[in-house]
Request: fold
Amino acid sequence: MNGKLPGRHRASRKVGLPAGRDRLYEIDLLRITAALAVVLYHYTFSGYAGHLTSVGYPAVSIVTRYGYLGVDMFFVISGFVVLLSAWGRRPHEFVISRVVRLYPAYWVAVTITAIVAITLSHGLFKVTPVQYIANLTMFNSLPNIANVDVVYWTLWAEIRFYLLVFVLAWIGISRVRVLAVLWLWLAATAVMEAQVLPAGPAAKIDLIVQSQWSHYFIAGMALCLIYRTGFRWQLGAILVIAYGNAVYQAIRFAHRVSDRYHQVLHPSVVVAVITVIFIVATLIALRVTRRIGRPWFAVAGALTYPLYLVHAYNGFVLFNLLGGVLNRWVLLVAMVGGMGCAACMGCAAYAINRLVEVRLAPRLKRALERYADAAHRGLSGARRRSVRAGRPAGPRPGTEGPSQTALTAAAARAAHLIIDDAPPIFTDELAAAMLGDQAEHLIGFYRAHGTHPVLSGARAQVTCRSRYTEDCLALRPAGLIQLARATVRPWR
Reply:
């Protein structure tokens, strides 16, 4: 620890690459796999079948036509990772983290796609000024304005999921509350699928419920709980129900894809892919796959979002421009670029990641944090003025919050659920909320240095004492007497 206290130390690390054992490199591997599946689906199947490109790959499209299921995998990952990142954060911190994660790369991608569509697509893709500006907000689906690129529809689904997580962060994220939300969400999904409501109200309600995709977000959130607190029968039941609904909806969607492109998609293959997605994600949540994780997965995983944003319409335009010049297989390899920085889409993804996400995103985050702090100070000033005006102002001086000792212990209990392997010694779902404004800093210190022997020992002591205390209180009133004797004994 080099003699530095948590309150005086700030861990430095690259944006978007959490340090320590809490980094799930296996999730990055899933991101890479899902992104490649979607890219190959567009380049070798849907682009040609949808008459958007003149270059076909009939031999490989027999397999790659199922690559759209990579989006289903993305939704499971989002349910897992977004809830995990929101745990212990205040609502405005969660909003800032999502804005910084999504918007900078998205603004650049929308701009590039709009320019390419206008200048190089020869009228194949049209973009109007109103459409472009509306797309920059990512809320263009509300007024029913078309996306600049076909793949952006998934971002609207993600935004609506974030709204749910924001509400959870607002009321305080805990295992019990997340479980309640998951059961309610499953019930709402069943109501939407049963079509028992009038069409008008049902369409508005389904904007939030997202019955076509909710099972993936629900499964991801359940897996996040398994990862944090261990396997429980309720979580297993939620996963089984979500899996069943995922299979049901995936088969229905496969029929729509078949009708759209006049190609055959076998339901058995769709079911097999969905099954593999759920099994692999469950193994990750149970920490079975930790040995296969590699740090370079995170580097490649960082390219998946910009690659996803720029690959579709831009790729179709380049296929049409170069299809008559290059061998189609050379063109395909060059377009995908191995997700590296040596060729078309991989190069664009790398440039957006390095120049926008790595450089611009931290500045945007600092600006948003300054704005949030200024707003908080403004509210505090209004509160002080209300005191001078004789209106109630909340707690008396000296009773503003817990002591530093209590905060340090709470940070150890909260970090125990994040850093240490399952099953936990003591599950304190309120510890992170108790930290208040200091939650991100204190828990972040444990993320960066939690494996240090001193911090590990202190964390073990705090959690064991808390577990002992809770077990004693569970035996009341005998437990209270036992606890009192244990407290007095050291001073005899």
Summary: Residues 1-21, 338-344, 391-399, 488-492 have pLDDT under 50 and may be disordered. The longest helix spans residues 91-120. The two ends are 34 Å apart (CA to CA).
